[in-house]
Every structure is written in structure tokens, then in C-alpha cells.
Design goal:
Number of helices of chain A: 11
Structural class of chain B: alpha+beta
CATH class of the largest domain in chain A: Alpha Beta
CATH topology of the largest domain in chain B: Ubiquitin-like (UB roll)
Number of domains of chain B: 2
Distance between the termini of chain B: 46 Å
Number of strands of chain B: 6
Largest sheet of chain B: 5 strands, mixed
CATH superfamily of the largest domain in chain B: Beta-grasp domain
Number of helices of chain B: 5
Structural class of chain A: alpha+beta
CATH class of the largest domain in chain B: Alpha Beta
Number of domains of chain A: 3
Number of strands of chain A: 13
Oligomer: heterodimer
CATH topology of the largest domain in chain A: Uridine Diphospho-n-acetylenolpyruvylglucosamine Reductase, domain 3
Shape of chain A: globular
Shape of chain B: elongated
CATH architecture of the largest domain in chain B: Roll
CATH architecture of the largest domain in chain A: 2-Layer Sandwich
Largest interface: A-B, 40 and 37 residues
Strand order of the largest sheet of chain A: 6-7-10-8-9
Order of helices and strands of chain B: EEEHEEEHHHH
Helix content of chain B: 25-40%
Radius of gyration of chain A: 20 Å
Chain lengths: 291, 169
């Protein structure tokens, strides 16, 4: 066992014997068939997730998965697209009210944004990963390459699908439906300092109003559990209803209570709960002003 | 097509090929070695080891043109890449415009964070010749200084931009 970053990252790299640079996805999946192989994207803290005993590293560096483009239905983002690419890409800046670009700009520091990839941010659940929260609000899907072919699953089902990213599955693409591109979006990350990777809370909200009522809504919260937190029962309370001050107050308070319930004894979580309630109220109140 | 592959030699090292400051270089690196450690081992000591967790930016280098932290990056990942370290920008006798600007603006105190700052500034100025103060702050947000604060360093980047614009005319 070797600690590349003492106290921070526990890594198991002593057994690594080969590093393979596949140039096609087919070759990458095929290289993973070899026992004790692990797929790494090309960036930051990949060592964290190297399983003990790994002998072969399959490196993503040469795969043609760094792109942002559109097809008739979706915005397509390759898994090796960096946060810096997302921040500066014209499509990411213009579609979905620019939430992809703005949220990417709030991820850690420039030095990390230049390295960290979309696929790497999604592959392993972590409370502080930004993209799962944003992509949940966007109703996006994740495309993965498996030994048996490829599969596309909604982001909200990605972690429960139990893909073994790195050993059996490779994230290849994100697909965000353009049918939602003109909805209303909101993103906020509350952290100690702007360039920190972690946060007290991260929220990504999406909504569509029709005749003054919410026709569609997704409120996703990060930094609370390893997966984005979504409360479908509370969303149902809001859908189709008139956004009265009383309803906003009641639903926001319930979000606060729900967040607090995860770790009731923690002072930081009490702050998180307050933020969850306040940010929800702030967003919903803003919607009433648009009516 | 056969995929490129690195295999451990009998000493437990990979032999990687890369370009450092424009010169082709072959490095022997352990699987566990970070790019920072490898660069320093091969004499590029201008790249500093600060936090070793990717937070402080003193180990920043340019990899294929973009600024990155080298302390959390396995050295074998640099195989086939072009690396620029602070030594590749200028010398004491012939400093790069950004280095000269940092001196002129009085942006250097102990100096430990400065190579990383200059490398970050280089990446910014390569892609934006006229950055505003907000852009400079945003781009240098991963470079921490524990001596001076950041006012002089932001001024230095503005001055460097001015110098570079002037020299390109």
C-alpha cells in the first residue's frame, strides 16, 4: 500500500505492472477484460479509486471522448471533456440558461478545472461532486460502454444501476435533453472559499411554468449524501399548484427538515438544512415574480 | 492498430518519453511517483512541492498547453505529453515578460508560490491577451500565497499582459 498524498488519498499502486493507452473505445473495453485491470480518466485524483491489487491501468488519455456537440434531441458531452471546456464552450454557455458553464466555473480551482473530467466527476459517488447534481436537474442520461455493448441510463438511476465504473464499465457520454433547454435553471454552491472543491450545499433547480403554475420541476441538492438528494413527494406538492407564500414557506421548511434528518446531531448539517430551506424559498419566490 | 503500452522494467520502473521545455526526455518513474516528484528528480526544481494535495498550486506546470497541478498526477500519465515548467519560460538573464512583470510589480516576497502563479498566468495570457481583473482572479484561484496577499500579483499579471501586447505589436 502506498500513500501518494499522505492523509488524503489512499492508493494502491504498488502492483501496477502495465499502463495501456487504447485509442478506441473498443480497445479500451477489450483491455478491461484482462484480470486486475482498471480504467483511469486522465486527470486529478484518479489514484483514489484504484482498487487494491490492480496490475493494469487502462488510460483514457487517447480516447476520442473530449467533445461537446448537439444532435437533434440532446446536448452530447464526451466523458473526457474537462470542467474548463464546459465553462468556456459556447453551447454550454447558451443552452440550459448556461447552468453547465456556470456550475463548471464553480468547481474547485482553475488548475483542477483544466484536468478534471466529466466522466471522472460522475464515475464514483461523492457528496461534493457537482455534476451529478446539475445533471439530475437537467434530466440528463449517462452512456456507458460495457463488455456486452453500451447502455444509457438516467443520471438519477446511475448509481443504483451498480455499474462497476473502472473495472467493467466506462462512462463515454452525457446526454442532456434539448427539450428542457429553455426551462428555468438555478445553481448555487455555498462553500467556505470559492475555489474549494467541497461545499456546505450545492443546489441545481429546474422548472417550467405554465399559466402561473409549475408544469415541471426538479430540485436537486448536493453535499448532503453521496448521491444527489431529490424529494419527489415534495416536488409533487408543488407541481400544478399556485405558488402562494404559504405553500413556498411550508415546502421550503419541509426541505430543511428533510436535510436535517440525515445527520440531526451535526452543527454543519443544521446550517445545511437552513441553506436548503432558504435557497428553495428564494428560488420559488423568484418564480412567482416571473408570473 | 496496436495500442501503446508501458511495462515495468526489472527495476520496477516505467520508461516514459515526453518533452520538457521543448526538449525530448526519457524518464524512469515508479508507478507511484507523481509528475512533480519526477520533474524535481530530473532537475526541474523550480516546480515546488507545497501541499501535495492539489490545493495550493505551487506545483503548477503547463501540460500540453494547459496549467495543471503536478503533485496529484501520476508521472506515467505524462507519457507522450509536452510539459513546460517555470525553467522553460525564461532565465534570470533573460526573463519572460510575466517573470519581469512580477519583479517590477513587487509581487514576490518569499517566492515559493511564484513559479506556480507565473505558470497559471502564462496559461491565462496565452488564451486571453486582455484579461479583466475578475478573469485574472478566477484563473489564479488555485494558486495560494501565504506572504503577500494577492493585490500585487494581480497587478503583475495586468502589467505582463500589457508588456506582451506591446511586444507583439
Amino acid at each position: 500500500m502506498f500513500f501518494i498524498n499522505p492523509g488524503v488519498t489512499e492508493v494502491f499502486v504498488n502492483n501496477i505492472k502495465n499502463v495501456i493507452f487504447p485509442e478506441t473505445l473498443k480497445d479500451a473495453v477489450s483491455a478491461l477484460k484482462k484480470k486486475k485491470s482498471f480504467f483511469m480518466s486522465s486527470s486529478t485524483f484518479s489514484f483514489k479509486s484504484v482498487p487494491e491489487g490492480t496490475e493494469n491501468i487502462v488510460l483514457a488519455k487517447k480516447l476520442p471522448l473530449r467533445y461537446v456537440k448537439k444532435d437533434p434531441k440532446n446536448l452530447l458531452i464526451g466523458a473526457l471533456t474537462t470542467f474548463d471546456d464546459l465553462e468556456n464552450n459556447p453551447l454550454c454557455r447558451s443552452l440550459f440558461s448556461g447552468i453547465l458553464s456556470f456550475s463548471a466555473s464553480r468547481c474547485s480551482s482553475q488548475l483542477i478545472r483544466n484536468m478534471a473530467t466529466v466522466g471522472g466527476n460522475i464515475a464514483h459517488p461523492n457528496a461534493f461532486n457537482l455534476l451529478p447534481v446539475v445533471l439530475t436537474a437537467l434530466g440528463a442520461s449517462v452512456k456507458v460502454a460495457l463488455r456486452t455493448g453500451s447502455k444509457t441510463v438516467p443520471v438519477r438511476d446511475f448509481y443504483s444501476s451498480k455499474f462497476k465504473c473502472g473495472t467493467e464499465a466506462i462512462i463515454t457520454e452525457i446526454q442532456a435533453p434539448l427539450s428542457l433547454a429553455k426551462d428555468d435553471f438555478y445553481f448555487e454552491k455555498v462553500s467556505k472559499i470559492r475555489s474549494s472543491w467541497d461545499s456546505y450545499i450545492t443546489v441545481a433547480f429546474r422548472s417550467r411554468l405554465r399559466n402561473g403554475r409549475l408544469e415541471d420541476l426538479k430540485l436537486a441538492f448536493g453535499a448532503i449524501t453521496a448521491f444527489p438528494y431529490v424529494n419527489e413527494a415534495l416536488e409533487k406538492e408543488l407541481l400544478g399548484a399556485e405558488l402562494t407564500p404559504a405553500l413556498i414557506k411550508s415546502v421550503s421548511a419541509k426541505y430543511g427538515e428533510a436535510v436535517l434528518a440525515f445527520h440531526p446531531a451535526s452543527r454543519i448539517n443544521a446550517y445545511r438544512a437552513e441553506l436548503a430551506a432558504n435557497l428553495t424559498a428564494f428560488y420559488l419566490k423568484g418564480l412567482t415574480e416571473k408570473v | 492498430m496496436k495500442n501503446e503500452k508501458l511495462s515495468l522494467d526489472k527495476n520496477g520502473r516505467f520508461e516514459i518519453s515526453l518533452k520538457v521545455n521543448g526538449k525530448p526526455l526519457s524518464m524512469e518513474v515508479k508507478p507511484s511517483e507523481s509528475l512533480l516528484e519526477a520533474l524535481r528528480k530530473y532537475g526541474y526544481k523550480g516546480t515546488k512541492k507545497g501541499c501535495d494535495t492539489g490545493d495550493c498550486g505551487s506545483c503548477a506546470i503547463l501540460m500540453d498547453g494547459s496549467s495543471r497541478v503536478s503533485c496529484v498526477m501520476p508521472a506515467f500519465l505524462a507519457h507522450g505529453s509536452e510539459i513546460t515548467t517555470i525553467e522553460g519560460l525564461g532565465t534570470v538573464q533573460n526573463p519572460h515578460a510575466i517573470q519581469a512583470a512580477f519583479v517590477e510589480a513587487g509581487a514576490v516576497q518569499c517566492g515559493f508560490c511564484i513559479p506556480g502563479m507565473i505558470v497559471s498566468a502564462k496559461h491565462l495570457l496565452d488564451r486571453n491577451k486582455t484579461p479583466g481583473e475578475g478573469e485574472i482572479k478566477h484563473h489564479l484561484d488555485g494558486n495560494l500565497c501565504r506572504c503577500t496577499g494577492y493585490v500585487k500579483q494581480i497587478e503583475a499579471v495586468k502589467l505582463a499582459a500589457k508588456k506582451l501586447r506591446k511586444s507583439s505589436k
